[in-house]
Amino acid sequence: MARIIAILSFAGAVVMSQSLSAQGLVPRTNQQPSFDCKQAKSAAARLICADEDLARLDAQLAAPFRQKLSQLSDAQRDTFRKAEVQWINERNTTCGLEGRDNEPIDSLIDAKGCMADAIKGRIAALVGTQQPQQAAAPSPQAPSTVPSAPQVAPKRQDTAQPQNASNQPAPGFSGAPTAQTLDQQQCAAPDPDLSISGCTAVIQSSLETQQDIAKAFSNRANAYAAKGQLDRAIQDYNEAIRLDQNNAISFNNRGLAYARNGQPDPAIEDFDEAIRLNPNYVEAFANRGAAYAAKGQLDRAIQDYNEAIRLDQNNALSFFNRGSAYARNGQYDRAIRDYDRAIQLNPNYVEAFYDRGSAYARNGQNDRAIQDFDEAIRLNPNYVEAFTSRGLAYARQGQYRMAVQDYTRVVELDPYHADALTNLGVAYAAIGQPDLAIEAFNKTIQHDPNSAKAFTMRGSAYADMHQYDRAIQDCDQAIRLDPNAALAYFLRGRVFQTLRQYDRAAADFVKARQLNPKLPPS
User: Fold this and answer.
1) Which CATH class is domain 1-26+415-522?
2) 27, β-bridge pairs
3) Rounded to whole angstroms, how far apart are CA atoms 473 and 454?
4) Which fold has domain 331-398?
């Protein structure tokens, strides 16, 4: 019985990523942020711990932060940590959470959207995905580094944070760097606050040309976007476009801000205009592809990625994004070829290894999937979802002891990972350790008392221990939570059959088969 339940459970264990909720507080269940919520004292920390969406984003931020930290020298790490603390303080101030540590959570909900935008912006800035350009003539970008946070399924393409060219004048301002005013130089600074200050001075000056003022609005918009203040960024892009309606970069960057703000339709309109103004604008094609992918229009996304690749055949991110679109479309062989090219261009592309492994797994090639998950874990030893997916691949091969090792590691990294706990229990049951399986299922139910799957799996483990009454109770609860839980009916039928209650067993088997014809007859 345990092996049948294990196979059926693992077969459906992949969890697709979820989008950020746009409405109100989403009570946190299993999602753990990057810090211990028991120590949460500040308003920002308490809000993150109270909300599922913010907790997930905060956890996602931890991975690129650790990766960036690992690439720095000791002296650089100290500076980087200080910069991160400064960003947190600025985020909390910008989102209106300073001085509100003692307020109830319900009164802090108004800051959720600002917090989410700020964290997404910080993730994009740390990972170094494709960037909005400064207000200058468009030019192809070098291949991007690793994109944003890991996910189980091939992931969507995140938009990114503006990037200023350090030690250069603000593009479009006249004169050599030494001939420019201090305000103009600061307007091009990589520090968002310094850039905002300098650009504001340029905008308010009566000595600047209309073109220079347009560049200042565009650069200040980039800085606001870097701080996660997308509405203010869009306002400044509006002004830049009003003053210079032929600047493709301003349309592209405003499109990025709309996309990050969850508004793909106006984003696509802006990318359309950027492409009309510059038919060879690689980034605009790639960004429009990402916007179409966010809308689920994968064929149109692939068309745009095709054009981006035609214009720049050495951009690893474009191949990765097209591969993700193919994978979402169920075209795994094509996806794998694109991931191959992305890895060829960037041998340390951890997300490409992970997503190629996922494509191999969905193609039934578990050995090759495991090899890619191995490489993803080598590049990022704390990559939770790579351990999760490798454990699933091992389980599908019947290597349950290897699966136990991987799921144990996931729980060490994330004690609240419900799917890992459930699959750990299934693996324990499959190797004949139902007592350890029950411990894992208990933890799952503790964190998610509405998990019909966890109750079904625990019922299976109780049946293996011949505790039939408890097995029936768990199946009953699973069916109450999910009246279409075919596996719970099937398991309860097996228990009734063991207890020689054949009429009840037959009724459960019939119901199970109605819900899932692939189940065995008894």
Assistant:
1) mainly alpha
2) 51
3) 13
4) 1.25.40
